[in-house]
Design a protein that fits this description.
The complex is a heterodimer of chains A (about 325) and B (about 325).
Chain A lengths: L2 E3 H15 L3 E5 L15 H5 L4 E3 L4 H13 L3 E8 H4 L3 H8 L2 H4 L9 E6 L14 H4 L6 E3 L4 H11 L6 E6 L6 E3 L13 E4 L4 E5 L4 H13 L4 E5 L2 E3 L3 H11 L2 E8 L4 H13 L8 E5 L8 H7 L3 H13 L1
Parallel strand pairs in A: 2-3, 2-4, 4-5, 5-7, 6-7, 10-11, 10-13, 13-14
Antiparallel strand pairs in A: 1-8, 6-12, 9-11
Helix pairs in contact in A: 1-8, 3-5, 9-13, 10-11
Chain B lengths: L13 H26 L14 H8 L7 E4 L4 H7 L3 H9 L22 E4 L6 H14 L6 E6 L6 H12 L4 E7 L2 E2 L2 E2 H4 L5 H7 L4 E5 L3 H16 L5 E6 L17 H8 L3 H11 L5 H24 L21
Parallel strand pairs in B: 1-2, 1-3, 3-4, 4-8, 7-8
Antiparallel strand pairs in B: 5-6
Classes of the chains: A alpha/beta (about 325), B alpha/beta (about 325).
């Protein structure tokens, strides 16, 4: 099977969607002439024209709201918010309109809006450009939140999202864009309701998503060297969370470590931990552990940024402490 | 039938003239009844009355076709009524009954009507403008020449979304009719206390949107200006903004003690009551008799009474259905 970079997989997904459905269009900052800040829409303006690839002003609230309106009006917009950091400007439209219009109207309207955002840290771009806020979005009823961690999911989840009648928020970790992975040329939409076991194991469940998947797999490899077989679960979808898959794994391994790049306090990892306690308390041999971001705005220098984020070593340590603590 | 000659005004058809009056009276009576019912505890939460502003919704709606879209605010009872959502479901919505236009889920601030392209009832000040821009964008992309009318108040011009939305609509030449109902107060803050530039039309022009101000207490002026503005938007010239200068006679909401304006000011504006002044003009033109007015008022009273009865008889949605319509069920997906 051929390999694509994550950003190429996103672009392939965008192209296929634009070609197959005239209702689909892309709008956001620098998606057109610039080719996308992460090159995900490179060449699309030339291919599809300015009606369907729309460079917007720096008006997050309004172009996300316009995405809502366009979806209400029969289109299938893909709104690209350059990063989750800028999405804060659009939170009112997202929380108070996109997520609620169906419910407030008594079911009269659906909002088939897809919003893509880059997320996460690791490139030394400091505090205002390094947030991981997908957990905040996963808090909101009315929307779906997906976190593709592989190129295949990056393409397939976008295609799946465009089939949903309700808003879908796709979080693409910025460190993943150059990553290579297998992408079936004929692959279409993928499931966006279930987690995936990326590495089966029997000794501990490592639960993670998005940009943290690769560090977690690395940690699993290291653990294997000392005879610990970790099961790595890529959650893939934060809302709706695939709780049955999580619990099935924990019932098998009896230990769970959640890896989440966001700040530890009130993290989505805390939600997963609560669900494990509620659903598999008597199957646990140790408290659920969390490896999360440190309680600090992401600092600029590499050594400090690295220390602020989950790393494979910390995941390994968490597992080892669990077995001996 | 008699006609009159005022510069720029078409002859006023008597039937149409009486429709305008009746619609304003319908809104007034609906709102007055809502006050009663709120005081009786039948309506709860927030209630934002349109009393005094009736000429705006009534006049403006005349310029819109059933195919046009409307986005409105939390002060939208009048807009829904004129748009055609029956008073019964609106009253039931105020009660929170399942027979309400939004299945009781929204209440006063969230009237929706898909069949009449009424996209809310959106309660965040300024929050409807981007949605209106998107609806217009969808029309443009799908080759439809229809208008999206977006009502908002003077408070909304302070939000960044106001400028962002006007800019985007102008930049992309979208068919949005921005309709600012300037009642001079953003809740309790007078326009001059929160805007360095109080001329709303100038703000619009600064963002690239042609604009004019209209006497919002004169239903004929509102209709005339809105028809012209809608025509220009409909033919693809891009957005237009109308600033209707109006005034609400009641408080911002039922919770508001109105400490921020004098009773004298309110009384002065009441002299320009859109219904009373219009009635007087119709009589002056020989288009309205006492008998006709009595008939209209009786019919409206009957309609409102029926609406209340409908709401009273309505049912409460079962609690088991609490999480219904958070997501679109698979079979209903389009």
């Amino acid at each position: 099977m051929r390999k694509l970079k994550y950003r190429e997989a996103v672009r392939e997904g965008l192209r296929e969607a634009l070609k197959s459905d005239p209702r689909v269009f892309l709008m956001g900052e620098d998606v057109g002439k610039y080719g996308g800040t992460y090159a995900c829409s490179h060449g699309l303006l030339e291919e599809f024209g300015p009606d369907r690839i729309r460079d917007t002003p720096l008006s997050e609230s309004t172009f996300v709201g316009a995405g809502i309106g366009a979806a209400l009006g029969g289109m299938r917009p893909i709104v690209e918010v350059m990063t989750v950091n800028f999405s804060l400007l659009a939170l009112d439209q997202i929380v108070n309109n996109a997520a609620t219009i169906r419910h407030m109207s008594g079911g009269q309207f659906s909002v088939p809006l897809v919003v893509r955002m880059a997320t996460g840290a690791g490139r030394q771009v400091a505090a205002q450009h390094s947030h991981s806020l997908e957990g905040w979005y996963a808090h909101i009823p009315g929307i779906t939140v997906v976190t593709p961690a592989t190129p295949a999911d990056a393409k397939g989840m976008l295609l799946a999202a465009l089939r949903e009648p309700d808003p879908v928020f796709i979080f693409e970790h910025a460190m993943l864009y150059p990553m290579e992975g297998e992408v079936d040329e004929h692959a279409g939409p993928v499931d966006i309701s279930r987690a995936a076991v990326r590495r089966p194991g029997k000794d501990v469940s490592l639960l993670t998503f998005g940009g943290s998947l690769w560090k977690t797999l690395e940690a699993a490899d290291q653990l294997a060297l000392s005879g610990i077989e970790a099961e790595v679960i890529d959650l893939r979808v934060l809302r709706p969370l695939d709780t049955p898959s999580i619990l099935a794994s924990v019932r098998k391994t009896h230990r769970a470590v959640i890896v989440d790049e966001a700040w530890r306090t009130g993290s989505f990892a805390a939600e997963i931990s609560a669900q494990i306690m509620e659903g598999a308390f008597y199957d646990l041999d140790a408290p659920v552990a969390r490896v999360c971001g440190a309680e600090v705005p992401i600092p600029y220098p590499k050594h400090l940024e690295d220390a602020a984020l989950p790393q494979a070593a910390a995941i390994v340590k968490a597992v080892q402490e669990m077995r001996h603590g | 039938m008699s006609c009159f000659a005022e510069a720029g005004m078409p002859d006023l058809d008597r039937a149409h003239g009486l429709v305008l009056l009746r619609e304003m009276i319908r809104i007034r009576r609906f709102e007055e009844k809502s006050v009663e019912l709120y005081s009786a505890g039948k309506i709860r939460g927030f209630l934002h009355l349109y009393i005094g502003e009736e000429a705006v919704a009534v006049g403006a709606m005349q310029a819109l076709t059933p195919d046009d879209a409307i986005v409105a605010t939390y002060r939208e009872h009048g807009h829904s009524l004129v748009r055609g959502t029956p008073a019964g479901p609106l009253m039931a919505e105020l009660y929170g009954k399942a027979d309400g236009c939004s299945r009781g889920r929204g209440g006063s601030m969230h009237f929706f009507d898909a069949a009449r392209r009424f996209y809310g009832g959106l309660a965040i000040v300024g929050g409807g403008l981007p949605v209106a821009v998107g609806l217009a964008l969808a029309d443009k992309l799908q080759g439809r020449s229809r208008v999206t009318a977006c009502f908002f108040g003077d408070g909304a011009v302070a939000e960044g979304e106001f400028h962002e939305s006007l800019n985007l609509a102008a930049l992309w030449k979208l068919p949005v009719l921005f309709l600012c109902e300037n009642n001079l107060y953003a809740m309790g803050t007078a326009l001059a206390r929160h805007q360095a530039q109080t001329d709303i039309t100038l703000k619009a022009k600064g963002d690239g949107v042609p604009a004019e101000a209209v006497d919002g207490m004169d239903v004929l002026a509102v209709e005339e200006a809105t028809r012209q503005a809608a025509a220009s938007v409909r033919c693809g010239d891009g957005p237009y903004l109308l600033e209707y200068r109006t005034y609400r006679f009641r408080a911002h909401s039922m919770y508001d003690p109105e400490l921020y304006r004098s009773k004298d000011e309110v009384e002065q504006w009441k002299q320009r009551d859109p219904i009373a002044t219009y009635e007087a003009r119709l009589r002056q033109w020989g288009l309205l008799t006492d008998e006709e007015l009595a008939k209209i008022e009786a019919a409206v009273d009957a309609e409102i009474a029926e609406a209340v009865a409908f709401a009273e008889a309505g049912s409460w949605e079962p609690v088991e259905d609490l999480t219904k319509d958070v997501y679109t069920p698979p079979q209903a997906a389009g």
